[in-house]
Each structure stands twice: as structure tokens, then as C-alpha cells.
Design brief:
alpha+beta, single chain, 13 helices, Immunoglobulin-like, 577 residues, 15-stranded mixed β-sheet, disordered C terminus, two-stranded antiparallel sheet
């Protein structure tokens, strides 16, 4: 133990300036993350803030990579002429000293900074622990990768070459995989297994991450034990392949979203066909990539009956057949298409209907107004040749659909005053100021978001409305989407950036402007005056994902016809209000 402590002190003295500089950068990044939502949001300042955030991010990453490589290569493991081999230093003690120093610097200090920042923003202790553990695990993965590459190279120049080669190889491999997947997808419609919505359990993400860490640690340990680069590299490839194979074939079981009791009954909800005419349109998603064959998607006019108040449904096609009198049968060539579906008997956008009921107002402004443009529900996909053969023919249509249910609920009702807060387990929203504008208003808010792989539920999306009960109207707000740096090390390609209201991985603090402007060319404007604002309140609406239920529909005389042309928006029919 004395030898390990001596080696740690020796490396700490040798790299004290670099280590101190990196710690200062980490502290500066923590302070910047905390104060960024309070900074002005004008375009010039936002550009400077974004540049500073990017500089801090790259400084953290480059500093970590360079320092880890230098510390490991101070006692090189390649070749037989290293000075430390002439001293009574065992490979085990050398490995322990490197792990102890680098873990303290690049695991403990970032986790401590993040804990302090979360404590400053009053994050619950249980969430602080989860975020801290996730930060340590991700940091461990990146540090172990750099250590393994540095241990198998003699100096920093060779480390850069090897790391660059590995990175380029991974990028090329991913590009080939994505290209093959896209090519297969774009060749034509595909049939997939359409299942209910599930959320990944917390164990799956942690197990995958631990497997990857173990796969990286294996060649590192072998290199310190044998100093054989070839053997270590081979062991690393085998370990990585084994980890990927386990991740690929292991039956990770996601947790299904619970289905509400009212939706479990066969009597509700029910798909109702409003018309027996199938409106077919050419689907250009595949025609440009596969000009030898065109495809037609048939849309059915369906509505949904029996949905309780406060719930919305999205319909997905699972499979469908169209059987003609002569015995010929067409089977859908593709599935999985999703669309919103109107609620019977109201002929209006479902989200507008539900929001009026939820907010108890006669009008919700700022949402889509005017004629409701819809294609209907995708019911069947056929080739253009089959469409021409059976055009104007009728048959029995049988379709199976999955209905994905979402519940809308009021999460909070806040007065329009600075300091008002909405708080739940993983989300905190604080009003920082209200700015009246001409026929509009902006509300500056600060959002604190916690989301880790250990949470067994997804982060529910939030939407915002200004409600004036006296005027019997509510106005929907839109987010300015101001970028903000988040704590912790996620994938480098993400640049550590998130956007207000997004579900980030870890802990993030964002500043945002919610703009409420109740005017579109299709609707009458709402005069948002100071007097109107004095009688308004901010409503936070949460969308809670629900389960999925299977429903079937049968249309006896389903006729194949080309969709009629529509004025206003080419190719899109209008459904009158």
C-alpha cells in the first residue's frame, strides 16, 4: 500500500499543473451550468454563451483524454526498456496507482461537482444519488477506454494515431450499417411486428453499460499483467464482441405501460368507419428510391368512440386484408403507420377537444385552427399494379390496429408572478419574469430536469397554457428552445447540449422563453393586454403515456378509389368543422 501511495504522489506531482487546470475547468463548467439560465437571451449573448459552452465542453474532453494518456504512458507498458521495470514495482501496484489517481480526478471530482450543483437547485436526495451513480459509470467507461488505448501504445503520438484509427473505423462501420438499414427500408414498405408501447426497465441500461465497461477493462488488465499488445488487443476484441453479442441476444424485457380499466373493456374504445370509400394516394416514400415499382396507401375515414375525457389516442396499423367477391385477396405490404384519429361525435382536432374539456374553457387559441386537414387513417398499402387492377372494385376490408393511449392532466396552476414554481419528483419549473408584448406575452422560466437510466418511467412531456377564466379562453405557449449545457458526460457526438423541455440523460438546467401569441391567419386574435394577463394563470399540462389496446374494424363494401384533389394544400383533403 505504501508503494501505491508513493506512485500516486509521484504522478500527482509530475502532472500537478495539468490536473489542477482540468479541475478548474470542471469547476468553471459547473458554475457556468448553474448561472447560464439567468443570463440574457438576446441573440448576441446567446451566441457567445453557446461558444463558451462548447469551449468548456471540448476543454473537459480533450483535457481528460490527454491527461489520462500521459499518466498511463509515464510508465509505458510497451517494450522492455521502461525505467520502472528496473525497480521493485509490481504491475499490480502500478495499475492500482493509475486507477486511484485517475478515478479521483475524473470520476470523483465530476460527480462531486454535479452533486453540489444539484443540491444548489434543491434536487431530491434520491435523484441526486441516481444521477451521481450514472455519472460515475459513464465517466468510468470513457476513462477505461482511454486508459486501454494508452496502455497499448508507447507515446502520445502513437496513441493519437491508434485512437483516430479506431474512431474512423467505428464511424465507417456505423455508416455502412446505417446505409444498409436505410437501403432495405427504402426499397419498399415493410411488415413489422406491431406491439404495445413499453418502457425499458432500469436494469437493462445499467447492465449494458457494465458489460461495456467490463469489455474495456479486460484488455487493460491483461496489458498490465502481460505487457503483450497483441494478446491484449485480441482479448479486447473478443470481450467487446462477447459484450455486444450478450446485449444483442439477451431477452431484455421492457415494462408495458398500464392500460386504463375503461380501455380494457371490449366495448370501449371502438373504431367506427364513417365511409366505405378507401382514398388511395401514391406514397412517395419509396418511389424516389425504387422507381421500378410504385406504392399506394389507402386511407379510411375512421373515428373512435368510447374514449373517456382527458384521453387521446394514436392509431397504428398492424395488418389488413381486402377480400373481393371472386376470392382474390390483397394483404397490406406495410404496417406501423400511425396517425391521430378523430373522437366521435366531435368533428374537430382531438387535442383541441380534450384540451377544452381539461381546461374548462370554450376556446383554446394558438393551436391548429381553421379547416382540419387530414388524410384519414392509413388502412392498407398495395402496389400500384394491384391498385390499377382493382380500382373502383369493392371488397370486405378487415384491419387490425393498435391504439396508443395518452392521458392529459393538469400538473400545476401557477399565478403569473416571479418566483412561482411547479415541482415534481424530476422536474422543477420556476417563473423568472413576465414580459407583456403587443397582442402576446412571454414568460421567462428556468427548468431543472433529472432523467437517468435508473428511472423506470419516462419523463412526461409538458405543455403550457395561459388561461383566462373570465374570457373563457386559453392560449397555448410555444418554447423558444434555448440551448443549455447539461452536467455529466454523455456521448461526445451530442456535445453535451440539450434543449428546454427535452428529456435529457442526467441533470440539466435550462433557461427558456414561453411565448403566447393567440393569432394565426385562420383564427380570430385574442387581445393579450396587461389587463388580460392580470386575470390569467399559467397552466402546466402533463401528457402521461398509457398502454396500448388492440382493435379491429371491418368495412363490408370497401371501395378502392383515387383520392379526390383538394384545394388549399395539394394532396390533403379537408374535413369540414
Amino acid at each position: 500500500m505504501t508503494l501505491v501511495a508513493h506512485l500516486v504522489r509521484s504522478d500527482a506531482r509530475r502532472f500537478r499543473l495539468l490536473l489542477a487546470a482540468w479541475v478548474l475547468i470542471e469547476i468553471a463548467d459547473t458554475v457556468f451550468t448553474g448561472v447560464q439560465p439567468l443570463l440574457p437571451a438576446d441573440p448576441r449573448t446567446s451566441t457567445a454563451i453557446g461558444l463558451l459552452a462548447m469551449l468548456l465542453f471540448f476543454a473537459r474532453w480533450l483535457g481528460m483524454i490527454v491527461i489520462v494518456a500521459l499518466v498511463v504512458q509515464t510508465h509505458p507498458l510497451v517494450g522492455s526498456d521502461a525505467f520502472w521495470m528496473t525497480r521493485p514495482i509490481s504491475p499490480r501496484a502500478l495499475f492500482a496507482s493509475k486507477v486511484l489517481l485517475l478515478s479521483t480526478t475524473f470520476l470523483a471530482i465530476p460527480a462531486l461537482c454535479e452533486v453540489v450543483l444539484m443540491a444548489a437547485f434543491r434536487v431530491r436526495l434520491a435523484e441526486v444519488v441516481l444521477v451521481g451513480i450514472q455519472t460515475v459509470l459513464f465517466q468510468s467507461l470513457w476513462v477505461a477506454i482511454v486508459m486501454a488505448l494508452a496502455a497499448m501504445t508507447r507515446n502520445l503520438a502513437r496513441f493519437v494515431l491508434v485512437a483516430g484509427g479506431v474512431l474512423v473505423s467505428l464511424v465507417l462501420l456505423m455508416s455502412v450499417g446505417i446505409g444498409v438499414a436505410v437501403r432495405n427500408t427504402l426499397e419498399g414498405p415493410q411488415m413489422h411486428e406491431v406491439t404495445g408501447r413499453v418502457v425499458s426497465g432500469p436494469a437493462a441500461g445499467a447492465a449494458m453499460l457494465l458489460l461495456l465497461i467490463a469489455a474495456v477493462v479486460v484488455p487493460l488488465v491483461i496489458q498490465y499483467a502481460t505487457r503483450s499488445t497483441r494478446f491484449s488487443a485480441l482479448a479486447g476484441v473478443v470481450a467487446f464482441a462477447a459484450a455486444c453479442l450478450i446485449i444483442w441476444i439477451w431477452p431484455w424485457q421492457g415494462q408495458a405501460f398500464p392500460v386504463p380499466a375503461w380501455a380494457s373493456r371490449e366495448s370501449a374504445p371502438v373504431l367506427i368507419a364513417q365511409s366505405s370509400t378507401g382514398e388511395f394516394r401514391r406514397d412517395d416514400r419509396w418511389g424516389a428510391w425504387n422507381p421500378t415499382e410504385d406504392w399506394q396507401t389507402g386511407y379510411a375515414r375512421l373515428t373512435l368512440r368510447g374514449v373517456e375525457e382527458g384521453w387521446l389516442a394514436t392509431v397504428r396499423l398492424a395488418d389488413a386484408t381486402l377480400q373481393f367477391a371472386g376470392g382474390a385477396t390483397l394483404t397490406t405490404a406495410g404496417n406501423g403507420q400511425s396517425s391521430i384519429i378523430p373522437l366521435e361525435p366531435v368533428d374537430d382536432l382531438p387535442n383541441r377537444v380534450v384540451m377544452r374539456q381539461l381546461l374548462a374553457v370554450g376556446r383554446v387559441a394558438g393551436m391548429t385552427q381553421g379547416p382540419w386537414m387530414t388524410l384519414g387513417v392509413p388502412a392498407i398499402v398495395v402496389s400500384h399494379a394491384d391498385f390499377k387492377t382493382y380500382s373502383v372494385s369493392s371488397g370486405i376490408y378487415r384491419g387490425r390496429f393498435l391504439l396508443d393511449l395518452d392521458r392529459l392532466e393538469i400538473a400545476a396552476t401557477l399565478p403569473l408572478q416571479t418566483g412561482a414554481e411547479y415541482v415534481d419528483r424530476r422536474h422543477r419549473i420556476t417563473i423568472e419574469g413576465i414580459v407583456p408584448q403587443a397582442q402576446a406575452a412571454s414568460i421567462r422560466v428556468r427548468q431543472v430536469i433529472v432523467s437517468t437510466m435508473f428511472h423506470d418511467d419516462s419523463l412526461s412531456p409538458l405543455s403550457f397554457f395561459l388561461r383566462n377564466r373570465d374570457a373563457d379562453v386559453a392560449v397555448q405557449g410555444s418554447s423558444g428552445g434555448m440551448a443549455a449545457a447539461s452536467m455529466g458526460l454523455s456521448l461526445p457526438v451530442l456535445f453535451g447540449m440539450s434543449y428546454a423541455g427535452s428529456s435529457t440523460n442526467g441533470f440539466s438546467v435550462t433557461g427558456d422563453h414561453l411565448r403566447f401569441q393567440a393569432y394565426t391567419p385562420q383564427e380570430e386574435a385574442v387581445e393579450i393586454t396587461p389587463d388580460w394577463l392580470s386575470r390569467a394563470e399559467l397552466i402546466v399540462v402533463r401528457t402521461v403515456p398509457g398502454g396500448s389496446v388492440e382493435r379491429t374494424v371491418e368495412i363490408p363494401e370497401f371501395e378502392i378509389r383515387p383520392a379526390p384533389p383538394t384545394p388549399g394544400m395539394p394532396g390533403y383533403p379537408m374535413l369540414r368543422q
